[in-house]
Design goal:
Two copies of one chain form a homodimer.
Chain A (H helix, E strand, L loop, with lengths): L1 H18 L4 H18 L21 H20 L3 E2 L5 E3 H4 L21 E3 L4 H10 L5 E10 L13 E10 L6 H16 L5 E7 H11 L6 H8 L7 H11 L4 H11 L2 E2 L1 H9 L7 H20 L5 E4 L12 E7 L9 E7 L3 H5 L8 E6 L1 H15 L10 E5 L5 H13 L4 E2 L8 H11 L3 E5 L1 H6 L1 E6 L5 E5 L3 H9 L3
Parallel strand pairs in A: 1-4, 6-8, 12-13, 12-14
Antiparallel strand pairs in A: 2-3, 4-5, 5-11, 6-9, 7-8, 9-10, 10-11, 14-15, 15-16
Helix pairs in contact in A: 1-2, 3-6, 3-14, 6-12, 7-12, 9-10, 11-12
Keywords (chains A, B): Aminoacyl-tRNA synthetase, ATP-binding, Cytoplasm, Ligase, Nucleotide-binding, Protein biosynthesis
Enzyme class (chains A, B): ligase
Catalytic activity (chains A, B): tRNA(His) + L-histidine + ATP = L-histidyl-tRNA(His) + AMP + diphosphate + H(+)
C-alpha cells in the first residue's frame, strides 16, 4: 500500500534526523508528521481480526429497544411503588460460598469469576439469595422492597423466546413475621396489576403450596427421600403429558406405579374455593397435617383474593410445583393464555421461602419471606414483536424543539438560543453543522419525531422574535423571544 | 487422617492471622479455604460459618442510600434527555479480546470470568469501549446516546472517598462527523448543568487537548516514543508537586532535564481565551502543526462556551493530561473546589476519541466521538455524608396513605378499601396484621413519612364515609367513600 510505504519512509527520515542530532524543532516537526500519517492509517493493522459480537446469550439494547424496555420498567416500578416498596441494590457478584447450596442442580449454571488473587466470586444467579444474604448481614427482620437488576445463568439461550444468559429480574418481596397470607395475597395482586397494565392479553395465575404437594406425596405413598425429585418431575407437567411424567416417575425415579397413579389423580385437579373445600374433606389429604395446613392457608388466600377481586384469573392448580429448592409454602406462576404471540412460558413466578434467610444467619434465625419475580425479558420479547408487527413509530428521545436557522452564518445565534432553552429546562437539539440546510433540519425532525422547530433568521433577530414551526402541520408562528419557553411548554405538554 | 490434619493446620493458620490482625481480605481468603476443606471432609459444622459480607470493594445500597442515588440519577438523566440523547445498554461482560489493548497499563485491573467452557469473557472496565464496539458492530456512524451502568475495576478501593471496585458510570457521547467543537462544547455544557443542578458547591472544569500536549512534548524535545509515558507523569500534577513530577520524568522515565524544565514552564499555565491567544503567538508552539490545530480548536471551543455563558467555570489548563490511551483531541475533567466535603478528586471527565471505533471496524473506518462520564459514586459519597450531617429525613417510599382501622375484625374492610385505592392508582399500604392497634398504625406513618391515614370503622362503614387523618396536623375529616381517591390525590399532590 502506498500509504504504508509513505509511513515507513517518514519513520526512516525521523530516525536519520535523530541519528544526526538535528535541530530538535526540526525533529519534532517530522515526528508530528509521522504521528499524523500513522493516525490516518488507523493504527496497527494486526489488531483488527476481532470477532465483533456480544457474548453468547447476551445482547445490546438499541435505543428503540430501550424505549420499549423503559415502558415496561415504568409500569412495573409504578406498581411496586404503589404498594409501598422501598428499593435496594446489591453487587452483581457475590462471594462464591454465598451462592453455594442454594439452587440444587441448577448450581452448575452459575458463572464464576477467574481466581485473580483475593476472594472467589460468582455472578448472582437470582436476586432472592442476595436479598436473603442482605437481610441476614444487616439483621433486618422486616422490609418490603423491590430490586430490578440483571442476573446471570449459563443456560442454553433461546433468544427469540426471551431466554438469555444475562437477563433482568424485577423482584418484589415482603420479609417479616405477619399474619398468614396477607403479604402472599398482595404479591398475587401485584402480578395481576402488572400483567393487566401491560396489556399482554389474557393470563392465568396458577397457585399451589409446597405443603399441599408434600402432603399429597405423603398420602400417595412417596418415600420422604423422593419428595424433592418427584416434585421436579411434577414441575414438567406444563411441558409434557401426564403419561410421560408418570413414566419418568416410575422408570427413572423408581416410584411405585400405584403411588404414581394416585399422584396422577391429584395433579389433574384445578379450580377455586370449591376445590379447596373438597380437598379439605378428602379422607386421605385431610388427615395429613402439612396438607391440611396448606389447604387452610389456601382457603384464606382465596378469601383475600376475592376481596381484591382477582379470583377470576387465579387457579388453584395441584400440578404447579416450581423448580427452586427454597420454597416452603405458597407458590405461584403466571402464564399468558393467548397464542397470537410467541410462546414464552411463564412471565411471573414466586412463592414463600421462610428458611432462606436462616441459612445465612449464624444462629439460624429465620425471617419469613414471600415474593414475586417478573420475567421482564419474556414480556419484552412479546412487546418488541408486537411493535415490529404494528409498525408503530417509537420515539427514542423526548426532544421538544430543534433550534434551526434558514440562513447561513447563524451558528452563534442558534447556540445562544439553545443555551437559553436548556437553561429553562426545555429539551432541545441543534444540528452540529455551521451552516445546515433548512430542509435537512426539518427532515431531522421528521425522522426523530421532534414536534417543533424554533427558527432564527436575520429578520427574526431584528424583530426580537423566533419563528416557531409545528412539524406535523407546517404551521408557522412568530413568538416573542421572551415568550418562547412558555409557548414551547404549552405546545408540548401532554394532555 | 491426613485430611483432618490439614484442616487442623489450616485452622491454626487462620487463628494466627487473626491474632496478628492481618489484612482482612487475607484472613477471609484463608477462612474460605478452611471452610472448603471442612466441606470436603463432609462435616456439617462448616455450613453456617459464612463470612457474611459483600465482595471486597463493593457494597449494598440500603433504601435510604437508594433514595439519594435516585435523586442523583434523575438529575443526570434529565440533563441527558434535555440534550436529546437516546439510551442504549450493553452486556456487563464482553469477549475478553474486545477489551484487550484499549486501556494500556490499566488492563491488569480488568476482571476476567473463569473459563467454564465457551468464550473467554471479562467484565466491562468502562462504558466507552463497549460503546465503540457497539457502533462498529452495528455500523452506526451517527448517534447521541447516554448509558448508565456499572463498571468493574480490580483497583485498590477507598470506599469513604467513593472509590469502589463496582461503580456506576453515567456516560453521554456524541458520535459522528461534524463541524469542529460544537459537540465538544455541548459536552462541557452538560457537565456544567449537572454539577450546578446537584448543588455540589463551587467547581472548575479543566480543559486541554491531546494535540496541544503532544505538540508541547515535541517542542520541548521529548522523543515521540516517550509521549505517552510522559503524558502519564504530567497527569499526576493534580496529586503531586511539580518537583516530584519532574524527578519522575528525569529519573524513572529518562527524560533530559532540559526537556523536563521546558515542560515545566508550559504545564503551570492556565487561563482562558487570553492564554490561548498568547500560545498561538508562542514562537515554538505556533510552529508545531498539532499544537496549532489544537490551539485553534481550543479557541473555537472557548468561543462556543462564551455563547453558552459558562467560561467562568472553565479553565484551559496545560497540566491536564487524563490517563486513558484512547483520547485524541480535547480532554476535560471537573473538580470540586470546596474543602468542606471529603476530597474525592474529579467528579466528571471525558474527551474526544476519534480512533477507538476504527480499532473495531474490519476496515478501520473511523467514527469521531466525544463524550463525558459523570463520576456518580464520588458525587454520591458527598451527598450521603451531607445528608448524614444534616440529619435530613429522607423518605424511602412514596406511599400516600395507610389504610387503617380503629376497631378489631376489620381486616376484610381494610383489604377491600386498599384494593379500591390501588386500582385507582393511589400509593397505599396496610399493616399485615389481622387486628393492629391504631397507635401502631399511626406510629408506622410517623416512622415512614406516610402523610395520610384512611381509617375505617363500624360507624364510617354505616355512613358510607372514610375518616381521613392528616398525620402531621392530626386533623381528621370524614370523606365520602366515592370522593376519597380525589381527596387523597388533592392532599398529596406536590405544589
Amino acid at each position: 500500500m502506498a500509504e504504508e510505504a509513505a509511513v515507513r519512509a517518514q519513520a526512516e527520515a525521523v530516525r536519520r534526523l535523530k541519528q544526526d542530532k538535528a535541530d530538535p524543532d526540526e525533529i519534532a516537526k517530522e515526528v508530528t508528521k509521522l504521528l499524523e500519517m500513522k493516525a490516518r492509517l488507523g493504527g496497527d493493522e494486526g489488531k483488527q481480526k476481532f470477532v465483533l459480537k456480544t457474548p453468547k446469550g447476551t445482547r445490546d439494547y438499541s435505543p428503540k429497544q430501550m424505549a420499549i424496555r423503559e415502558r415496561v420498567f415504568n409500569a412495573i416500578i409504578t406498581c411496586f411503588k404503589r404498594h409501598g416498596a422501598e428499593v435496594v441494590d446489591t453487587p452483581v457478584f457475590e462471594l462464591k460460598e454465598t451462592l453455594t447450596g442454594k439452587y440444587g442442580e441448577d448450581s452448575k449454571l452459575i458463572y464464576d469469576l477467574k481466581d485473580q488473587g483475593g476472594e472467589l466470586l460468582s455472578l448472582r444467579y437470582d436476586l432472592t439469595v442476595p436479598f436473603a444474604r442482605y437481610l441476614a448481614m444487616n439483621k433486618i427482620t422486616n422490609i418490603k422492597r423491590y430490586h430490578i437488576a440483571k442476573v446471570y445463568r449459563r443456560d442454553n439461550p433461546a433468544m427469540t423466546r426471551g431466554r438469555y444468559r444475562e437477563f433482568y429480574q424485577c423482584d418484589f418481596d415482603i420479609a417479616g413475621q405477619f399474619d398468614p397470607m396477607i403479604p402472599d395475597a398482595e404479591c398475587l395482586k401485584i402480578v395481576h396489576e402488572i400483567l393487566s397494565d401491560l396489556q399482554l392479553g389474557d393470563f392465568l395465575i396458577k397457585v399451589n403450596d409446597r405443603r399441599i404437594l408434600d402432603g399429597m406425596f405423603a398420602v400417595c405413598g412417596v418415600p420422604d427421600s423422593k419428595f424433592r425429585t418427584i416434585c421436579s418431575t411434577v414441575d414438567k407437567l406444563d411441558k409434557m403429558p401426564w403419561e410421560e411424567v408418570r413414566s419418568e416417575m416410575v422408570g427413572e425415579k423408581g416410584l411405585s406405579p400405584e403411588a404414581a397413579d394416585r399422584i396422577g389423580e391429584y395433579v389433574q385437579l384445578h379450580g377455586g374455593l370449591d376445590l379447596i373445600e373438597r380437598l379439605l374433606q378428602d379422607p386421605k389429604l385431610s388427615q395429613n397435617k402439612l396438607a391440611k395446613e396448606g389447604l387452610g392457608d389456601m382457603k384464606l388466600l382465596f378469601e383475600y383474593l376475592t376481596l381484591f377481586g382477582i379470583t377470576g384469573k387465579v387457579s388453584f392448580d395441584l400440578s404447579l410445583a416450581r423448580g427452586l429448592d427454597y420454597y416452603t409454602g405458597v407458590i405461584y406462576e403466571a402464564v399468558l393464555l393467548q397464542e397470537e404471540t410467541v410462546r414464552v412460558g411463564s412471565v411471573a413466578g414466586g412463592g414463600r421461602y421462610d428458611g432462606l434467610v436462616g441459612m445465612f444467619d449464624p444462629k439460624g434465625r429465620k425471617v419469613p419471606c414471600v415474593g414475586v419475580s417478573i420475567g421482564i425479558e419474556r414480556i419484552f420479547s412479546i412487546l418488541e414483536q408486537r411493535v415490529e408487527a404494528s409498525e408503530e413509530k417509537i420515539r427514542t428521545t423526548e426532544t421538544q424543539v430543534l433550534v434551526a436557522s434558514a440562513q447561513k452564518k447563524l451558528l452563534e445565534e442558534r447556540l445562544k438560543l439553545i443555551s437559553e432553552l436548556w437553561d429553562a429546562g426545555i429539551k432541545a437539539e441543534v444540528l452540529y453543522k455551521k451552516n445546515p440546510k433548512l430542509l435537512n433540519q426539518l427532515q431531522y425532525c421528521e425522522d426523530t419525531g421532534i414536534p417543533l422547530v424554533a427558527i432564527v433568521g436575520e429578520q427574526e433577530l431584528k424583530d426580537g422574535v423566533v419563528k416557531l414551526r409545528v412539524v406535523a402541520t407546517r404551521e408557522e408562528v412568530n413568538v416573542r423571544r421572551e415568550s418562547l419557553v412558555e409557548e414551547i411548554r404549552m405546545r408540548t405538554s401532554r394532555p
